[in-house]
């Protein structure tokens, strides 16, 4: 059974998904901590009850206070489709937070993107590498790959979870989803046992939103603990051929996980 977290760290809390995640987390009765670079701006955007902790995802030495004592971490941060931006922010942010944990195992919910396994797409490969770090960390987790934000029609609210990342046109035809629903699924995953070790593509179909997503999570195939890739994904990125940066990060994070399990 998953222990229901009490303190949740939101990474990317002032972003368009992060603000929804903060609101949903507070609504559920969790204590919310936000990792922010600009306290003044964050105070304008987030409710007073949110604990603002100053830090920078690209500066590992600043992350200790943010992760200290948290029971769950929700990653909603994102940059651009530039390979350098995604490597230095999206990917590095996940790597740096995991290393700051030092092997501690809070529940993790990570937002990436639908179509992440498209061959030869450099920025997507760095997002995929961040997923691999999460799977190798030993933490309980859920990885959510949303479709295109806010292209859904008003009656298109039924939450649908897919696997295998088969929709790769790079357009809204791959699937659409509202931002508040992305946040809802991320926060739901924190205390639903059936969400653990699951990776999913998240889209919406015509119909009303479900009150309870337990059955939807239950229908998904769990990721193998012996693989760095998601259940049903087809990925051609052998670890031995991966960039040194990723291999070093993976070694550090998995070593911390093994030490914590001793």
What does this structure look like?
The chain has 8 helices and 10 strands. Strands 3-2-1-4-5-6-10-8 form an 8-stranded mixed beta sheet, sandwiched between helices. Strands 7-9 form a two-stranded parallel sheet. The model has no long low-confidence stretch (mean pLDDT 94). Helix 1 links the parallel strand 1 (7-11) and strand 2 (31-36). The chain is of the alpha/beta class. Helix 1 crosses helix 6, helix 4 runs parallel beside helix 5 (122-136) and helix 5 (122-136) packs parallel to helix 8 (244-260). The chain has helices spanning 16-27, 39-45, 64-67, 83-101, 122-136, 179-188, 214-218, 244-260, and strands spanning 7-11, 31-36, 51-54, 72-75, 107-111, 141-146, 148-149, 158-162, 176-177, 198-205.
Shape: globular
Number of strands: 10
Mean pLDDT across the residues is 94
The number of helical elements comes to 8
Strand order of the largest sheet: 3-2-1-4-5-6-10-8
First-to-last CA distance: 21 Å
């Amino acid at each position: 059974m998953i222990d229901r977290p009490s303190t949740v760290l939101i990474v990317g809390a002032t972003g368009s998904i992060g603000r929804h995640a903060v609101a949903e987390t507070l609504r559920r009765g969790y204590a919310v901590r936000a990792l922010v670079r600009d306290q003044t701006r964050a105070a304008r955007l987030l409710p007073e009850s949110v604990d603002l902790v100053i830090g920078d995802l690209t500066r590992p030495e600043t992350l200790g206070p943010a992760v200290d004592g948290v029971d769950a971490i929700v990653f909603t941060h994102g940059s651009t489709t530039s390979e350098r931006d995604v490597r230095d922010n999206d990917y590095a942010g996940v790597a740096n937070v995991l290393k700051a944990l030092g092997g501690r195992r809070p529940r993790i919910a990570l937002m990436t993107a639908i179509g992440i396994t498209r061959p030869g797409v450099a920025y997507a490969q760095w997002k995929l590498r961040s997923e691999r770090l999460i799977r190798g960390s030993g933490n309980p987790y859920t990885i959510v790959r949303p479709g295109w934000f806010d292209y859904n029609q008003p009656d298109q609210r039924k939450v649908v979870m897919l696997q295998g990342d088969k929709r790769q046109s790079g357009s809204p035809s791959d699937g659409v989803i509202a931002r508040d629903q992305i946040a809802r699924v991320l926060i739901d995953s924190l205390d639903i046992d059936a969400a653990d070790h699951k990776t999913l593509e998240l889209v919406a179909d015509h119909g009303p939103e479900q009150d309870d997503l337990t059955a939807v999570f239950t229908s998904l195939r769990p990721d193998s603990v012996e693989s760095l890739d998601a259940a049903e994904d087809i990925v051609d990125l052998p670890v031995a051929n991966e960039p040194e940066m990723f291999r070093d990060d993976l070694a550090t994070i998995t070593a911390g996980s093994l030490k914590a399990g001793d």
